[in-house]
Amino acid sequence: MKPEDLQLLLTRAMPFGKYKGRLIADLPANYLGWFAREGFPAGELGRLLALMHEIDHNGLGALLEPLRQRPRG
């Protein structure tokens, strides 16, 4: 994981599927769990989904809160 990956979780949207357009950080746990069981996509998207799954699964969502509150620009 690169430190900037945490910020990407809050800026990248899911590009397909039921949750298309939703930020990766806001995807439901059961959706992330489905990817964990079935396989994450290749590339950056899969890496970010796997990271978000680990954060969610281990109860570390608070790590993202300071980044959510940081002004962008």
Question: Keywords for this structure?
Answer:
73 residues, mainly alpha
What does this entry look like structurally?
The protein contains four helices and no strands. It is globular. The protein has one domain (4-69). It has helices spanning 4-9, 29-38, 43-57, 65-69. Pfam families: QSregVF_b.
Brief summary:
The chain is mostly helical. It is 49% helix and 0% strand.
Beta fraction: under 5%
From the alpha carbons, calculate the radius of gyration and give it in angstroms.
Answer: 12 Å
Describe the largest sheet.
none
The level of helicity is 40-55%
What separation lies between the terminal Cα atoms? 24 Å
Organism: Zestomonas insulae
Pfam family, one: QSregVF_b
Protein name: DUF3820 family protein
SSE layout:
Blueprint: H1 4-9, H2 29-38, H3 43-57, H4 65-69
Helix pairs in contact: 2-3
InterPro entries: QSregVF_b
Pfam family, one: QSregVF_b
Protein name: DUF3820 family protein
